[in-house]
């Protein structure tokens, strides 16, 4: 008779435990799949047409504008997006103008990424205009953390792995929170566009990078005061870097500062020297031409044509003479 084995036989996991283990694995797998799917979703070509944030389709425009071959390219902050009409510039100058939109929230994250992409997919322009508000000339230093999702969306959509990792070193929680923010923001923006029957991608493309600023409820009035937090922003390093980076034998560079409202403290901005960036001081426009918002820079649509004319005259001078070449 064989002696009984002294080795302990492995105990088979009871069926209820196996079921529970599978259940727990699926319970973890579903949210993980949804979380990581967010990174793939934002890279889809049509994402900004049916999804995206409030500014997503506008910020995406510069990355999609291949083969435009504009003569004048405008790159700036939201004052360029709202305060200029490239189509009116094109008609006045007889050449093609385009704006590459950015915002206060996107620039500290993406910097000139959209401009570099545009220049890689188009012929060199005759002129690049850097159009910024007077208190956003060093945008890299004034990062507003509650706004940077706008830039994170473009970085996740168009950035390389190395660019995303460089950003993650500065903001470790940025990439981690991005899918959650995207799922929170995208349905609202997409739903509102659908309700209003807006094709935001087509609209920004048709205007060559312009949006009319939406009503903020009321305009500024003569009692307005420009906050000292803006007056004290005198650094110009970001725009200096841009101007030196893109000036070449083929392409001239013009730095143009957006108009400011005629509020108290405006003279501290308009009387300041901008020699470091070879720019003229900003023009003062009546306060009622601006919406009463946080940044004192967004013009009512009725005032946009005048701001556009002011830039057209500066562009004429920058290109040294009449522009009579046919529009391409």
Query: What gap, in angstroms, lies between the N and C termini?
Result: 100 Å
Strand arrangement in the largest pleated sheet: 2-1-3-4
What does the oligomeric state look like here? single chain
Taking the sheet with the most strands, its summary is: 4 strands, parallel
Model regions low in confidence, pLDDT < 50 over at least 5 residues: 321-328
Strand-residue proportion: 5-15%
- Molecular shape: elongated
Class by helix and strand content?
alpha/beta
Radius of gyration: 25 Å
Number of helices: 15
Structure description:
The chain is elongated. Helix 1 packs across helix 10. 38% of the residues are buried. The strands form two sheets. A four-stranded parallel beta sheet has the order 2-1-3-4, sandwiched between helices. A two-stranded parallel ribbon has the order 5-6. The chain is built from 15 helices and six strands.
Protein traits:
two-stranded parallel ribbon; disordered C terminus; 15 helices; 328 residues; alpha/beta; 8% strand; 4-stranded parallel beta sheet
Short account of what is shown:
By secondary structure, the protein is an alpha/beta fold. Helix content is 47%, strand content 8%.
Show the helix and strand layout.
Elements: H1 15-42, H2 47-50, H3 56-64, E1 72-76, H4 78-83, H5 86-93, E2 97-100, H6 107-110, H7 113-120, E3 127-132, H8 149-158, H9 161-170, H10 173-195, H11 200-206, H12 228-231, H13 237-246, E4 252-257, E5 260-261, H14 266-270, E6 284-285, H15 301-318
Parallel strand pairs: 1-2, 1-3, 3-4, 5-6
Helix pairs in contact: 1-10, 3-7, 3-8, 3-11, 5-15, 8-10
């Amino acid at each position: 008779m064989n002696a009984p084995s002294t080795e302990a036989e492995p105990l088979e996991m009871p069926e209820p435990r196996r079921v529970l283990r599978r259940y727990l694995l699926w319970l973890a797998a579903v949210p993980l799949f949804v979380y990581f799917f967010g990174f793939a979703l934002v890279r889809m070509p049509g994402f900004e047409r049916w999804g995206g944030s409030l500014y997503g389709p506008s910020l995406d425009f510069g990355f999609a504008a291949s083969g435009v071959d504009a003569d004048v390219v405008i790159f700036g902050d939201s004052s360029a997006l709202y305060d200029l009409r490239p189509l009116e510039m094109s008609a006045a100058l007889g050449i093609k103008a385009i704006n590459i939109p950015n915002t206060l929230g996107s620039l500290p994250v993406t910097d000139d990424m959209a401009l570099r992409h545009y220049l890689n997919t188009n012929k060199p322009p005759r002129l690049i205009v850097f159009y910024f508000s007077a208190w956003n000339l060093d945008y890299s230093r004034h990062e507003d953390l509650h706004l940077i999702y706008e830039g994170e969306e473009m970085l996740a959509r168009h950035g390389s792995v190395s660019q995303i990792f460089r950003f993650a070193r500065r903001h470790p929680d940025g990439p981690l929170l991005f899918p959650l923010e995207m799922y929170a923001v995208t349905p609202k923006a997409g739903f509102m566009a659908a309700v209003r029957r807006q094709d935001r991608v087509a609209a920004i493309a048709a205007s060559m990078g312009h949006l009319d600023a939406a009503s903020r409820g009321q305009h500024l009035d003569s009692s307005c005061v420009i906050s000292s937090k803006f007056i004290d922003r005198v650094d110009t390093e970001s725009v200096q870097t841009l101007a030196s980076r893109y000036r070449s034998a083929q392409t001239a560079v013009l730095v143009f500062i957006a108009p400011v409202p005629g509020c108290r403290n405006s003279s501290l901005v308009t009387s300041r020297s901008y020699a470091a960036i070879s720019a003229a001081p900003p023009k003062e426009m009546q306060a009622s031409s601006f919406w009463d918002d946080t940044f004192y820079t967004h013009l009512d649509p009725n005032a946009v044509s005048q701001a556009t004319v002011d830039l057209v005259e500066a562009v004429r001078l920058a290109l040294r003479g009449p522009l009579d070449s046919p529009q391409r």
